[in-house]
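Z., the sequence and structure:
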Amino acid sequence: MAWCEQCDRYLTPTSLSDQGHCPFCDGQVVPGEGDPPLPSGEPARKAPWHFKMIVLLTAAYLLWRLVQLIMWLF
């Protein structure tokens, strides 16, 4: 976990600024052991294609089940 020495706080990588600084004091943050590197202005990673496909298929299935429920009620 990232650590700000000026604030004496642990910080999550998502709470850091785009440059990897502390959001409270704008000080330099020291990355923790085993943490991913601090943000360096590169764009965030996108979700993989198979995750998007699973979400799409799940939405289609639930929509079909809703149609079946409506048909059963009327």
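The first strand starts at residue 2 and ends at 4. Strands lie at 2-4, 9-11, 29-30.

Let me know what you think.
H.
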